[in-house]
């Protein structure tokens, strides 16, 4: 069994990781860390929840620890780009743990926060910057940051950056970075455009893949319930949540409006629920996530803005109240459970207008998702609606709204209806398994 001490990392980093309770490196870490330490450009493909942040973060920090160059004003030594505020903040939390006890400084810049404060934070120069592309460009336009000193570039969840239209931002940012530089690209899925992206920004990259693109984490148990429409879905969700009242449950809605209405319905039914979506300020998002993380709120209702920005090992259930319009996003949604070695349940509600979306998901996953209950509805044509689920302004980590292909039943929220199929053996549904922590 490989240990962190065998990967060639600085002893300080190994001690930090060990004291944090991490026992053994994950497969993506075992494969990627030595390559990054060699100075290779790396393209890493792995399921969500498998430790990608440590796979690039630990060897990046190792190399920076050996660089004792004085920080220059407004300078950055390493840049990590991520598509959403939540993911930026989650990456930074992990990196802060890794650099504990060292001289390295980690900072974040995202939209929705005071740009003046961010300018002041960047003024002395920093080691690692984690940023959304839009806000970074805002700071570059204001001459508040120097990118020519950055000799490391990490693109995390690069496929979502492509889907959200950040390719134009990357084309603006990349030429400003220092050369030569080391570039790492990490993602859970591999759309066709990723090859083009890798050719443009990586030099002779080593490809690291620990599972086929589109594959869910091994310990996620998936299932679907057929449900005619929104009211029946609400009744079904309330019933399922009631059987797991002490668990942390993440519920995905397709639209911002739908997420807010659903959260208020659950609160009215007595659940401790909060929501995050593109209409929430950064402060509101942070407070909602903090309440969910601490267990003060047991249910978090979110749009796809949260699909890749939540790393809470205690999430035991993910409910797809609406199926995602982009099939690959299903992988990221259900990856919010079964993290850090635990098990988890991913349950989806499928109406007539979502049958086509279900086929797309099963094609990407290369599986037939088990049917847990309900009667298959007649297939309906998907409406075309321009309602983004988790977009935002350029500086807010959102970029262009996802292309609208239609989706689940998006009628305005109403009180819970009747007639939803009863969950099969819901009282006997398993609890998530607990396992060893992984970095």
User: What Rg is obtained from the alpha carbons, in whole angstroms?
Assistant: 21 Å
Q: Strand fraction band?
A: 15-25%
Report the principal-axis shape: globular
Helix/sheet category: alpha/beta
**Mean pLDDT rating:** 83
SSE ordering:
HHEHEHEHEHEHHEHEEHEHEHEEHEHE
**How is the biggest beta sheet arranged?**
7 strands, parallel
What is this structure, in a nutshell?
This protein is 33% helix and 16% strand. It is α/β, with parallel strands linked by helices and 439 residues long. α12 (282-294) links the parallel β10 (273-276) and β11 (299-302).
Could you walk me through the main structural features you see in this protein, from its secondary elements to its overall organization?
By secondary structure, this protein is of the alpha/beta class. It is 33% helix and 16% strand. It has helices at residues 11-19, 27-37, 52-65, 85-98, 115-122, 133-141, 158-163, 167-173, 193-201, 230-243, 256-268, 282-294, 327-334, 355-365, and strands at 42-45, 76-81, 106-109, 126-131, 152-156, 182-187, 206-209, 220-226, 248-252, 273-276, 299-302, 315-320, 344-350, 371-373. Helix 2 (27-37) runs parallel beside helix 3 and helix 3 (52-65) packs across helix 4 (85-98).
Give the SSE layout:
Elements (H helix, E strand, L loop, with lengths): L10 H9 L7 H11 L4 E4 L6 H14 L10 E6 L3 H14 L7 E4 L5 H8 L3 E6 L1 H9 L10 E5 L1 H6 L3 H7 L8 E6 L5 H9 L4 E4 L10 E7 L3 H14 L4 E5 L3 H13 L4 E4 L5 H13 L4 E4 L12 E6 L6 H8 L9 E7 L4 H11 L5 E3 L66
Parallel strand pairs: 1-6, 1-7, 2-4, 2-5, 3-4, 5-6, 8-13, 8-14, 9-11, 9-12, 10-11, 12-13
Helix pairs in contact: 2-3, 3-4, 6-8, 13-14
